[in-house]
Amino acid sequence: MMVARALSADFLKMRRKGIWLLVLLGSVGLLAMQGLNFGLRYDYLLQHYQDDPWAGLIDEIFSFVPIALFLGTTLIASQIANVEHGSNSWKQLLALPISRGAVFTAKYLLGIIALAASCLILSCGTVVLGLALKFSPDHIPYLTILKLSFVPFLAALPLFALELWLSLTFKNQALPITLGITAAIASLFAGNYPEWFPLAWPLLAFYGKASPALPVGGGIILAFIIYLAGMGQFRGKDVD
Question: What's the CA gap between 47 and 52, in Å, rounded?
Fold first, then answer.
């Protein structure tokens, strides 16, 4: 019940902070970039992917999904934390009859909901873009399109958990943002990393030769461990 109250309050705060605009722009920007890509090279790409245009569109979009996810997790975590940092309202918030664990959990859930909403927009937008490009409506790979968005998202959860922890801990957001940007750039080379390396998991979750159980399951478990560690630290931390 306390988590629900804290989450409801956070939703109200976020309405004035532009986080939902960020959620929308992330997915729409990625789709717009591929719309421009296909618009400029339509004949070439259609010939290149003539056997399965939908698969081609998905491949082109996915090439930017990991870096978009890592940047998105960084910015959303920072936005969530800045609501309290920017107004110096931690003492007032934590003086309310709501446990620190509930406050931390609510912010964690808010970030996951925001990222999931962005993934849903990307899935729906992929279908719309494909139809706008005159791909066959009879062969829309709905499951693959959902996998395109949500499987890498689950594999990227550890970075979000870490980013939120750091963003809530430090008023100066330089460290978490630098870490997030570094992770996003490093994700461009994910194909060279071993399977156990978390930055490779979003790529392996979608394109891996083996089952996505390791990157997805590992992502969920590691994110939960980081969440517990962050909540434990948050409960005992003095705030200004």
Answer: 10
Report the pLDDT averaged over residues 192-204: 90
Where does the pLDDT of residue 106 fall: very low under 50, low under 70, confident under 90, or very high at 90 and above?
A: very high
Confidence of residue 29 (pLDDT cuts 50, 70, 90): very high
- The CA distance from 97 to 158, in Å, is 30
Q: Is 189 exposed, middle or buried (0-12, 13-18, 19+ CB in 10 A)?
A: exposed
Q: Which amino acid is at 131?
A: L
CA neighbor of 83 nearest in space, from 11, 157, 1, 174 = 11
Which among 79, 106, 101, 75 has a CA at the least distance from the CA of 230?
101
C-alpha 125: how far from chain center:
16
pLDDT at residue 153 in the model: 95
Give the span between the Cα atoms of 43 and 29, in whole angstroms: 23
| Phi, psi (deg, nearest 5) at residue 3 | -65, -40
Contacts of 217 (CB under 8 A, 6+ apart): none
